[in-house]
Amino acid sequence: MKFTAEQIAGVLGGEVVGNPLAEVHELSKIEEGKVGSLTFLSNPKYNNYIYTTEATITIVNKSFVAESNLNTTLIKVDDAYLAFSNLLEFYDQAKKASKQGIDPHTVLSDDTKYGENFYLGSFSYVGTNVSIGDNVKIYPNCFIGDNVVIRNNVTIFAGAKIYSESIIGNNCTIHAGTVIGSDGFWFWICSKS
Q1: What confidence tens digit (pLDDT) does each residue in 97-128 have?
Q2: Tens of pLDDT along 44-70?
Q3: CA distances from 59 to 25, 41, 43, 52, 68 (A)
Q4: What is the Cβ-side half-sphere exposure of residue 114, based on CA atoms within 13 angstroms?
Q5: Could you give the CA distance from residue 125 to residue 142 in angstroms, rounded to a whole number?
Q6: Residues 93, 17: Cα–Cα separation, whole Å
């Protein structure tokens, strides 16, 4: 995905100094910046790199004042470190939101009920009598057992296993390789709301 300086500044509530249409599609360290990359500068000990970086866009603190010409477009914010962290979270959510549909290389039982904006990645298996809510993303190679309930706004990353009879509550993230409902736990209810 590509983003312009103007779009990024809009997300961060920052001010663009330079080309508002400058585009980036990857991240880099400021000392390794290259054309098409986004970086940030928050620690003054790295200030010298801003004059040599080839990064297209650099997020900086509002207090930053350039001492010579720059080749990078700046986005000035209150706290560059925090803004960069928030941007990563925004990007992660944008990627998740764009995933939709059922890969043809899956097993999905005929009686599975699922809501809107559902994504099921390749080589995943969904058992019988499973109920899946809205905005659920199940990444490749996942196993969802019989009679599982997965509520709304859930992301299940690659290789996770949700054993039969388990209930996953709203707004949960299940990380890659996680096993829920194994011996000793029977089932696990995970919910942030």
Answers
A1: 678 899 999 999 999 999 999 999 999 999 99
A2: 999 999 999 999 999 999 999 999 999
A3: 15, 6, 12, 15, 17
A4: 22
A5: 6
A6: 27
Q: CB–CB of 152/170 below 8 Å?
A: yes
Assign 3-state DSSP to the chain and report helix, strand, coil percentages, each to 5. 20, 30, 50
pLDDT tens-digit readout, 68-85: 999 999 999 999 999 999
Residue pair 14/5 in contact by the 8 Å Cβ criterion: no
Q: At what angle do helices 80-98 and 5-12 cross, to 10 degrees?
A: 110
Q: Which of 107, 126, 134 has the alpha carbon at shortest distance from 164?
A: 126
Closest of 82, 140, 146 to residue 155, by C-alpha: 140
Tokens of 79: 């706290």
Calpha distance 18→69 (Å, rounded): 11
HSE, side-chain direction, 13 A CA sphere, residue 18 = 22
Residue 50 Rama label (left phi>0; alpha psi -120 to 50; beta): alpha
pTM of the model: 0.60
- Going by pLDDT thresholds of 50, 70 and 90, the confidence category of residue 15 is very high
Encoded amino acid at 85, one letter? S
Structure tokens at 3: 């983003």
